[in-house]
Amino acid sequence: MDVLLLNGPSLNLLGTREPNYYGVQTLDDIISNLAKITNDAGLTLQHHQDNSEARLIEHIHNATNNGAQYIIINPAAFTHTSIALRDAMLAVNIKFTEVHLSNVYKREDFRKRSYFSDIAQGTISGFGAQGYEFALQAAIQHIQQLKGS
């Protein structure tokens, strides 16, 4: 695996969950598109969505052993609550992009605080599913630079 894509709680409900914020594309639609882009770049993508903080942490901890060179993460509600996920990201020392489908700054005040933004290579918010594509382009560029191509 070159790119690890992690999605947090309730993102399995994309397509039906509050489409005014999150759009109508399903998570499977998004993953299928990203897998094609990754494959076209000669790289591999592994994806995990989980509603469990502990399982997301395990995926992060295993990322290095599984060959991840970059992580794209949408921590969802854990963005605002999980010091444990933040610590896991710091522990593996793999560059990552934080992605949010909605513009968190146009929503409730508690959504404006992220435990990830200050340690991420970048944060993408408010572009819907296209935000994942932006993050993937950053990941591909980073990996190509690592490989010297």
TrEMBL record:
It comes from Ruthia magnifica subsp. Calyptogena magnifica. This is 3-dehydroquinate dehydratase. Substrate binds at residues 74, 80, 87, 101-102, 111. Catalyzes a trans-dehydration via an enolate intermediate. Belongs to the type-II 3-dehydroquinase family. The lineage of its organism: Bacteria, Pseudomonadati, Pseudomonadota, Gammaproteobacteria, Candidatus Pseudothioglobaceae. GO terms for biological process: amino acid biosynthetic process; aromatic amino acid family biosynthetic process; chorismate biosynthetic process; quinate catabolic process. It is an enzyme of class 4 (lyase). The record marks 17 as: Transition state stabilizer.
